[in-house]
Amino acid sequence: MTAKHWRIALTVNGEAIAREVPVRLNLVDFLRHDLGFTGSHVGCEQGACGACTIVMDGETVRGCLVLAVQADGCAIETIEGGVDDDLRQMFHTLNALQCGFCTPGMLLSAAELLRANPDPSRDDIRDYLSGNFCRCTGYQAIVDAVETVAKARRS
Amino acid sequence: MSIGAEVPRDRAKRLLTGRGRFVDDIQLPRMLHLAFVRSPYAHARIEAIDTAGAISMPGVIAVYTAKELEDAVSSWRPEHKLFPTMAAPEQHALAKETARWQGEAVAAVVAESRAQAEDAAEHVAVTWHELPAVTDAKAALATDAAVLHDDMTTNLAFSTEIVTGDVALAFRDAAHVVEEHFRFNRHSGVSLEPRGIIAEFEPGENRLTVHQSHQTPHQQQDLYARLLALPEHKVRVICPDVGGAFGLKHHLMADELVACVAARLLCRPVKYIADRLESFLSDIHCRDHEVHARMAFSAAGKILGIEVDDLFNAGAYGQYPRTSIAEGNQITRLTGAPYGHEHYRAGLRMAFLNKSILGHIRSVGHPIACAVAERLLDMGAADFGLDPIEVRRMNYLSDDDFPRTSAGGVEFESLSFNGCLDKALQMIDVPGFRETQTALGQQGIYRGIGIATFVELTAIGPEYYGEGGQHISAQETCLLRLEGSGTVRCYTGVTDQGQGIDTGIQQVVAGVMGLPLADVEVISGDSALCPVGGGSWGSRGAALGGEAALGAARTLRGNILNIAASLLQKEPNDLSIEQGVVIDAASGSRHMAVSEIGRIGHFQPYTIPDGVSADLTVVERYGSRDRMFLAGNGLQIAVVEVDVDSGIVTPLRHLVVHDCGRILNPLLVREQVRGGVVQGIGAALYEELRYDEDGHLMTGSFADYLVPMAGEMPDIEVAHLETPTKTSELGAKGAGEAGTAGAVGAVLNAVNDAIAPFKASIAETPITPPRLLRALGKI
Fold first, then answer.
1. Is A137 near chain B, with CB under 8 Å?
2. Whole-model pTM?
3. Which architecture characterizes domain A83-154 according to CATH?
4. How far apart are CA A58 and CA A72, in angstroms?
C-alpha cells in the first residue's frame, strides 16, 4: 500500500521545519494551515490566478500546483519572509492594491521580474504580471509602481 | 484640510506584508469544515438521499439534507413591496425535493477537515430524476416550457412597463429610426477571494458569532437572527479583510447559512470557503439580458423617442433579500438617460430558469442601459452622416436643464455631460485619430473609437428598500469617541473591501476636527461594535457614511471647543482646532492640545461647569428623505484594434472623464474607476458563464472563464470634474459604478467603428473572436 503520509524537512523564510504531511496536501495549504503563513492566498487551486505565488529555491511557483512533499529539502520564501522594501513602499504610495488578496503574489512576481530585468518597459511589466489576477485595481497603479521602482533603482 | 488629499491607506501596509486577515486565515479551536453535495443536473427531482456511506467516513461529524435542517432554519421568499406582483418562490438552505440549477446544494457534510468532508461528500448517494431544463429566458416563457416552481403556472417572475410621453407619435413623426437586438451574456463579479464564512455558536449565551467575507454585516445579522430564530442582539457578524466583493457578497447565500445552522446544531465552529468551481456554479451572477431597442430621430438628428424591451431572468429563485429585479429596473430607468428626449417606453420581463441566481453585481443594469443607447446613437449618427461627438452634443441634457426628472423617471440634480465631453476632447485628438484610422485602414489595420456617455446612480435612498420592506439600512450613523489621550476612534456602518472608504472617512473626521490624520482610526465591519448601517454597495460609502462622519466630527469638535472655552474663559466660536491643538481662531495662537481636553474631559470632568455640552462620545446619522438616488455622470472613450482575420480585439487606449461630486481622495477614486473599467472591458470582450443546452456550466475554471489580466489591458486615463451634490454638506456622490457603467458601451462602439468598413456590426457581448468573425461573415 502506498504511504498516505510522508515526512518532509524544508526551510520556510529561513526557518528549519520538519513535519509529517498527507501526501495529497498542496504546498500552499501546508504553509497556510499547518504553519500559519497565511500571507499566501488561495484563489483558484488551478494554477491560474497567482494568489498563491511563493518562491521555491529562488523561483516563483504556484503554491497550489506543488505538493508539500515536493518541497522536501527546499528553501521556501513567502511574503512573510519579506520582499524588496522599495517595491512594497511604492505599492503603498501609489495605491497599487485594493483588497490586497492578490498583493503578496503580485509583489513576489514583480520582485522576480526586477531581478531578471532591471529596465522593463510597461509592456514587459504587464506581460510578466499576467499570471497574477487582480480584480480590484485597473492594473495601472501596479504597473506604475513597478516601473517607478525600476527607474529609481537605475538612477 | 485632509479632505480631498491623495492619502495612501493605512490598512494597505498590513496587506503588503502578508498580514491580512481574511476569513480563511482564521482558525478557531475545534473548528469543523463543511463540504456540499451539489446537483449535477440543472433541473432534477431528488428521489432519495442515502447518507449512510458518508457518515461512516473518517473525520465526519454530521451529514445534513433538507430534512434534517427543516426545524433548524426557515426558508425565505424574495419579495419587494414596490413590485407586489413579482413572484417570490420559496428557497431552502438545502434544496428540498427539487434541485433547480447545476450546483445547488442538496446535502452538507461536516468533518474535521475540508479534505475529509469532500471525501465523504462523494459517498452521499443521491437518486435523481432528471427534469427538462430551461436555460434561456425566451424558452422559459414559451407556453410549453417546463415550469420551475410548483406554486407557479408559468416561469414569468415579473413584467412591467414605463411609459413617458407619446412614444408611438415620436416614432411616427421620426425622420429616421434605428433598431437593434442586443445580447449581453451572463458573467459575475469573480472576486479573487471566494465567498467564505466561519460560524460559531455559544449555547450558554445563545450567541451566534459569524466571520464572513461580506459587504453588509448588519443585514446578515438581521437575516441570521430571523432565519435561525435567534434574538438579534445575540447574533454578531464580523467582516474581516474582504478580498473583493463587487456586489456578489451582499446577499444571503444558502451555503453560508448552512454553516451557521451546522455551527448551532453542533456547538462547534464551522468553516466554509467556496472553491473556484463552486464560485462559478453558485455565486450570484449578473447580466444575461436580451434587449430589443429602437431610437427615433428628427431630420436634424435630435432624439425624439426611445423604446426598450428587456428580457432577462432571475436564475432559479430570486436573490434575497434584495430580489433580482434591479438589473432590469435600472435598464428601463436609465436607457438614454443623458439625453433630452421626452418620449420613452421601456418594458421588462423577468423569467425563472435553471441557472444560478442572478442579481446585483457592480454597476447593476448601467452597462446595458449605456451600451444600448450609445450604440443606437452611433447607428443613427452613421445614417445621418453625423459625427458621433456632434450627435451627442446635440442631444445632451445641458447644464441649465437641471434639476430634471428623466424620461425614465429618475431625478437628476445636476449633471455635467458637456463639461465631461469638453474635458475628454482635450485629452484625445479625435480628428488626429480619424486620420490615423484611415491611413492604417488602407494597410489592412482596423482601428475604432467608441464613446459612451453614462449616468451613474449611487447612494440609494430609503425609498427603494425601505418602501420595499427589506431590512436594509438606508441611512448611515457614525460614532466618534475621543480617547483620554486626544486620539479618536471612529465607528462606521459602511464597510471597506479595499476601495478605501475607511481612509476617506478618516480624512473627513480628521479634516473637520482639525486633527492629524494619524490620530483617527476607523473601525468598520462588525455588527456588534458599529452603529447599525448598510455596509458598502451601490456606491454609498462616501455619500452617506462620509456625511454621517462629517456630522459626528462637527459635533465632537464643538464639544471639544466647549470644554476648552469653559477652561479658557472664552467663547467657543473664538476658538478653532488645527493639527490637534486648540488655537485662537483669529490670531492662530496656541491655547492647549486636544490631548489636554481628552484628559480633562475623561479624568477631571468636575472642572467643567454644568450645562456645558461636553460629551466626548458622539453619534450622528445621515440619510436622505426625498430622493431615491444621487446621480453622477461621465463618459468613456475606447480605442481598439480589431484583427479581422483572428477576430481578436485589442484595447489600445481608454479614457474616462467622471463627475462624482466632491472627491475625498483622488488617489483612491482614480484606481477604483480604472478597476471598474477593467471589469467592464472584461464583460465586453472576455467574461462569460456559458451553459450548454442542458444547463451544464461549461466555464468552471479560469482556463474557460477569461478574466482581464495586466497584459491585455491598456493604460486608462482618468480625469474628474466635480459637481458637488447640494443635498449634503460634503457634496460627495458615489464613485464605484462609473468604470463598469461606461466601458461596455465604449468598447462595443469602438469595435463597431473598427469593422464599419466591412458594413458589419455586432450587438452581443462578450465580443469573442468567433462572434466577431461571424459578424464579419468569415465563419
1. yes
2. 0.98
3. Orthogonal Bundle (1.10)
4. 15
